[in-house]
Amino acid sequence: MKSVLGLFLAFALVAGGADAASAEPWYADPSHPEEEGSTAPLAGRIVVIDPGHQLGNSRFSGRISRLVPAGGFRKPCNTTGTATNGGFPEATFNWKVARQLQRRLENRGAHVVLTRDSNSRDEWGPCVNRRGRAGNRVGADLKISIHGDGSYAGGPGFHVIAPPNRRPWTHDIHRPSLRFAKLTRARLRGVGLPVAHYTAGGDGLDIRSDLGTLNLSDVPTVMVELGNMRSRADARRMTSRDGRAVYARALAAAAYRYLK
Ligand code: ZN
Predict the structure, then answer these.
(1) Residue 84 Cα to ligand 1 middle (Å)
(2) Residues whose Cβ atom is located within 5 A of ion ligand 1
(3) In a domain, 164, yes or no
(4) What spacing in Å lies between the alpha carbon of 209 and ligand 1's midpoint?
(5) Is 225 a catalytic residue?
(6) 157-179 residues labelled b (16+ CB within 10 A) or e (exposed)
(7) Domain that holds residue 92
(8) Res 153: pLDDT
(9) Quick check: is 16 in a domain?
């Protein structure tokens, strides 16, 4: 038992050293539970991760174009999502980042619920109304919707979308959601990612009332557009496992900071 503990401590010291060398704050990497003196600092916390779209959406256009409630209006069930110029689908990017984020949060003891359980050409949806309500049923502490953008005209960069103060939909969650949005922006900036300048404000933060995924949530929530898949610089990062790990690490750090 002692030797196992010794090994763990030795590993922890090595890991801590690596952290210091990269000049990142300790909370940037939630895979280092020793920092909090507990292996499960997020125990009891529930996080819903929503990987945007589904790989098969384009093959089920009839089903994904039917209208569903989206928060005071109706909207198509879902869309196909975008892709890099090289054809790497947004649905796959979202899925892979979501799984990395899931692992990081579960390593810290959180209970993670995904809004879809596959990334498959044979599957479609779920619709935005189900994604919007996904955190409500399980009493989630937080819901994070992961996307990549596809702006032809825009340059590289991420932006974080939060819901507005709008009755009777998101007036009750807009404050904590904005807090989490700002933490997310800070952590994404903190790992060196550029802010998108092509969105409203150009400061990496956008408030939108047209998204069912946010409008129907009763728990604090944001949507992240982690990069512009049409930008060559972003596409390079978004199509590599190491690049996606940068996004997942920043999101995990933001969630950890928020939940603690
Ligand atoms: Zn999307």
Answers:
(1) 12
(2) 52, 81, 147
(3) yes
(4) 16
(5) yes
(6) bbbbbbbeeeeebbebbbebbbe
(7) 30-259
(8) 81
(9) no
Q: Please give the Cα distance from 247 to 23 (Å, whole number).
A: 17
DSSP-assigned letter for residue 215 = H
**Cα of 260 to ligand 1 centre, how many Å?**
28
Q: Which of 9, 28, 3 is nearest to 252 (CA)?
A: 28
Q: How far is CA 78 from the centre of its chain?
A: 18
Residue type, 73: F
Contact 216, 70 (CB under 8 A): yes
Rounded to the nearest angstrom, the distance between the alpha carbon of 111 and the centre of ligand 1 is 24
Domain-embedded: residue 244: yes
Q: What is the pTM of this model?
A: 0.86
* Residue 7 covered by a domain: no
**Parallel, antiparallel, or unpaired for β 67-69 and 46-51?**
unpaired
Domain with residue 86: its CATH number is: 3.40.630.40
Tokens of 86: 């090289």
Domain count along the chain: 1
Q: If the chain, 260 residues long, is cut into consecutive pieces of 10 residues, what is the mean pLDDT of each piece?
A: 40 36 39 57 98 98 98 98 97 98 98 98 98 97 98 91 98 98 98 93 95 98 98 97 98 97
- Tokens 């928020």 correspond to 258
Task: Round to whole Å and give the CA distance between 77 and 29.
Answer: 35
Tell me the C-alpha distance between 174 and 89, whole Å: 30
In the structure, how many helices (H) and strands (E) does the chain have?
8, 8
Helices marked H in 83-173: 90-107, 128-138
